[in-house]
Amino acid sequence: MKPIITLFLATVLLAGCASAEVWRRPDTPQQVAAADIAGCRSRAERDGYGGGLYGGIAGYDYVHRCMASLGYHATVW
Question: Could you say which DSSP state residue 21 is in?
Answer without folding.
Answer: -
